[in-house]
């Protein structure tokens, strides 16, 4: 699908820091968001992120497919799970410092919301894959992603323990990659503009006219997650906050 003109409706400005679930966009806003993503350069990915993407390409091929996206979403939940665990550990240490404990719990709520959002992505992608009749093997589509997620979880956890900024940056790289992959996939498949979006999870995630718009929304969600991680890289550490 050629994207050569900007829609009449302007794209909404994405906030530097978003609290709660990512915003749901209209059709025109989603098209504008797609153009913004495709015209924007990717982040300069770190070594760990490049290794992860290379591994995904070796196992599932370089081509963008819905099956490959389910593997991405299976892994995407992992950093938020690791951060939630670290948040509860920090909360147990600082529970007597009310102001700090409140900040820690707010961060826990953020990670849980983002984790839930990624879970909806996985369920939606799996639903699309099943509707298309794609075959999935135990080795490549159950065991392999579990092993990668296991590794990614512990890397995210250890990086956060040593230097939280490194863990957030790794996630920002991952989310930036996902954002561009989704938007590029829609651009490569104009037939999705005429394929009605399934309503299996519409009550929970939102209703969209086409699969193209559904995937654009998922891509925009990843942008919001990326921006949140970049902001958290610059946020003060919990242990550095003054006691109150």
CATH-derived topology: Ferritin
Which class in CATH terms? Mainly Alpha
Instruction: Give, in order, the helices and strands.
Output: HHHHHHHHH
The biggest sheet amounts to: none
Structural class, please? Answer: mainly alpha
Helices and strands in order, then pairings?
Blueprint: H1 27-39, H2 47-60, H3 66-76, H4 78-94, H5 98-132, H6 138-162, H7 164-188, H8 202-205, H9 211-234
Helix pairs in contact: 1-7, 1-9, 3-5, 3-6, 4-5, 4-6, 6-7, 7-9
Quick tags:
244 residues, mainly alpha, Ferritin, 9 helices, 69% helix, disordered N terminus, disordered C terminus
Notes on the protein architecture:
- It is a single chain.
- By secondary structure, the chain is an all-alpha fold.
- It has one domain: Ferritin (Up-down Bundle), CATH 1.20.1260.140.
- 69% of the residues lie in helices and 0% in strands.
- It contains 9 helices and no strands.
- The chain starts with 26 loop residues before the first helix and ends in a 10-residue tail after the last helix.
Quick gist of this model?
With about 240 residues, the chain is mostly helical. It has helices at about 25-40, 45-60, 65-75, 80-95, 100-130, 140-160, 165-190, 200-205, 210-235.
